[in-house]
Write a structure and sequence with these properties.
Layout (H helix, E strand, L loop, with lengths): L1 H5 L2 H13 L17 H15 L12 H19 L3 H14 L6 H17 L7 H5 L4 H14 L1 H20 L7 E6 L8 H11 L6 E9 L2 H15 L5 E9 L3 H7 L7 E7 L8 H14 L3 E7 L8 H22 L5 H19 L12 H10 L2 E4 L3 H13 L18 E6 L4 E6 L2 E11 L1
Parallel strand pairs: 1-2, 1-4, 2-3, 4-5
Antiparallel strand pairs: 5-9, 6-9, 7-8, 8-9
Helix pairs in contact: 2-4, 3-5, 4-5, 4-6, 4-14, 5-6, 6-14, 6-15, 8-9, 8-15, 9-10, 9-17, 14-15
Length: about 450
Amino acid sequence: MLEHIAEEEDLLNLSLAIVTDSGHRDRKRKRMILNSNCDANIFRLLQMREQMLKPDTKRKGIVEDGSKGLHLIHLLLITATAVDENNVSTALQNLTELYQTVSLTGDSVQRVVAYFTDGLATKLLTRKSPFYDMLIQLPTNEEEFLAFTYLYRVSPYYQFAHFTANQAILEAFEKEEDTNNRALHVIDFDVSYGFQWPSLIQSLSDKASSTDRISLRITGFGTSLEQLKETETRLVSFAKGFSNLVFEFYGSLRGESSTLMNLKKKKKNETVAVNLVFHLNTLNDFFKVSNTLKSVHSINPSIVVLVEQEGSRNTRSFLSRFMESLHYFAAMFDSLDDCLPLESLERLSIEKNHLGKEIKRMLNYEDEEEKIMINKETWKGRMESHGFRGMKMSSKCMIQAKLLLKIRSHHWPDLQFDGENSKSGFRVFERDDGKAISLGWQDRSLLTATAWHCV
């Protein structure tokens, strides 16, 4: 699929040139307001979408060869250009054709284009439109949790991020064992469901004994009190199985200044680790990123671990952001074909309630001025400018990442364990002279893990 997208770069560059030359446009774009003249086309569009959503519908455009896949990508990019230029009639016509051709149960080209089509259709409408909620279709909390759980179980994506970060935190703790009173405090700026921490709890328990216990305290920030309570219950219940570990969890809503102030008053000699796994790319603008990094630096932790998606979200061009997102999610959808069979309900849940939600979020920012670019070099510059210096990732981190893929290789025989490019399969490789480790799919980097300390 990725080669199909690459062949459309010239088309996108042409679109970008057109957008750049139209200087009369406001830099802050507004969603289109569709008038009554468009009603017939909208109803036609929604009819085609309903047909697409039916799992037993035979699509007329099943992608059986590369040329049909290329046509889908070509049409999607033309549609994105029409949406960006407020060309309502062309956008509606192309979206209708896309809905007639794509499928949520087709091959990876059809599936990823289906969700991008939904994202563009949503962008076409205002929030006041009676059709907006029908198109946005956000998953329930339960659906979102299940989709995350499925992806965590079948793909190395999240496990790579969590295991690599945990290994770096464990080594920072071991380095200070003579002075830290066998106490570790992890400050997680995006604790989410807490799936990262059972493996760290188990690793610390392996180092402890009934007479020489280790203390682990986790301060987790989240966006929902309900989710924080569920995460606390889940982790406390798991930790009860390890009698040689003293475990505490403190949940706090993001942005609570009193919690951040208390974090600066750390216990005597404890090792403090800050976890920024999948957090900074949720902040949307440099001001929030800068404030977060200043707060982290003021805590003066022993280590800061950062894992972020690779890719860029261009600050000025919707089409650039669209193309980069298409590359990234195309790789994610491709990788799921190696993780789950086409008819899998788990795969459908992952794509609809996790990846599909992310695609719509990516395409429908309210303020296009406040976008951050995301890739390893960008984060390196941001971290260094805020008083952090990169640490070399240990050989254990790399060995563990390779082992994670090897354990799963009985499901995916095409997995690659070296740094060479391959035509298929996951791979892990070092970057930046050993100061970063990336997880990739084929030739595309998906995630990069780094560790930092305060200067």
